Amino acid sequence: MGRQRRTGDGKAGRCLPSCCHHGLLHRVSAGARTGDGAGRTTTLADVAAAAGVAVSTVSRALSDPGRVNAVTRERIQQVADQLGYVRPGAAPVRSDQTQAIGVLMPDTSNPFFFDMIRGAQRELKASGRYLLLIDTEGSDHLEELLLTRARIRCDGAVLLAPRLTDARIDAVERSTVPLVTVNRPRRNGPSVVIDSASGFGQAVEHLVSLGHRRLIYVSGPRSSWSNERRWRTITRTAARLGVKVTRTGPHPPVGAAGTGAAEAVVNSGATGVLVFNDMIALSMLQRFAERSLRVPEDLSVVGCDDVFASACSHPALTSISSPAEQAGRVAVSLLLSSAPARQRSPVLPTHLVVRASTGPAPA
Questions:
Q1: First and final CA of the chain: distance in angstroms?
Q2: Could you give the 3-state DSSP secondary structure of residue 12?
Q3: CB-facing half-sphere around the CA of 243: CA atoms within 13 A
Q4: What is the spatial distance between Cα 352 and Cα 227, in angstroms, rounded to a whole number?
Q5: From which residue to which does the signal peptide run (predicted)?
Q6: CATH number where 232 lies
Q7: Considering the domain boundaries, does residue 315 fall inside one?
């Protein structure tokens, strides 16, 4: 097999310099499409031999990742990337295509989106394409502008937690490229929904089981579809269990919002706190400590997204875990599939991860 070109992370592929132009970030993430210099296509057997596993294991790891343990799956994916393996059945790339797929995200500093990008990148590599990352800075205007500009650079786009209205998303798609949304269902197009609302229902039940009777929801941005869906689930669950719930906000989904949110919680008299995302929740923990409020003795706090830092905070943050990487993979798969299949809108489940930031309600 011929010598592979390697990117900065040690994986095979073509490495182009990153650049930023009006918020547009280009990051190449595609490997070669074929195997050796003689033109022989890399097969599952090649990947299996290099990874030291059975062909069936490679097949499961690349087509149904949830059936293979994470360590093995990661090793197989790395080998497949290095060998330039392209999954059979992947949609062919036409000569008039750019081979790039745009992924628009509202905040590059939010670690929740990292796993989504990783999943999208790996699915694109398997089809011989690469990823064009676009930071919309949480602005609906910038989201629309950059998506329109990106139409000459990519063949389709995945919108992560879009801020545009459904009507604007449909209008932009008609005039630009095919789209798939994540965390925004669409009546006229494909989407992938992470069911964080059900996770908040679990969080309410968890806090009530610990004796909390006054809850507060620290809400995210008003333009967030998932924010309102979570609030509806929280209020329904609280009513069913006979407890009181209020909310504060809206708050931007960034750590800086935690200070103001923490003050609003303290003044509310609530003892159980449900927070839009972990970035706000982690900042709130810091503010509570500055005010000599003990977590969970005085207040119990639940975040959402289960980012890496949640398990490392003090106290470790109870959080709603989301299948973010799977969402990225599924979104790209829908985008690259045939027209009938693109109409599917899968819903991915979430679950509550209980850690030290929740405990019995104060007496």
A1: 69
A2: strand
A3: 25
A4: 17
A5: none
A6: 3.40.50.2300
A7: yes
What angle is formed at CA 359 by the lines to CA 356 and CA 362, rounded to 5 degrees?
140
Instruction: Report, in angstroms and rounded to the nearest whole number, the Rg of the chain calculated over CA atoms.
Output: 22
The three-state secondary structure class of 351 is strand
The alpha carbon of 260 is separated from its chain's Cα centroid by a whole number of angstroms, namely: 26
Q: How far apart are CA 297 and CA 103, in angstroms?
A: 42
Query: Model-level pTM?
Result: 0.72
303 phi and psi angles, rounded to 5 deg: -100, -170
Q: Of the ranges 91-95, 163-167, 314-318, which is most confident?
A: 314-318
Q: What is the pLDDT of residues 206-265, one digit of tens each?
A: 999 999 999 999 999 988 889 999 999 999 999 999 999 999 999 999 999 999 999 999
Q: How many Å apart are CA 208 and CA 291, to the nearest integer?
A: 25
Residue ranges making up the domain that contains 271: 196-323
**How many distinct structural domains can be found in the chain?**
1
Tokens of 213: 């009777």
β-sheet with 179-182: strand ranges across = 20-21, 24-25, 130-135, 100-105, 157-160, 179-182, 191-194, 347-348
Give me the count of residues in the chain.
363
**Confidence (pLDDT) at 135:** 87
pLDDT of 34 strictly over 70 = no
DSSP class per residue in 202-215: HHHHHHHHTT--EE
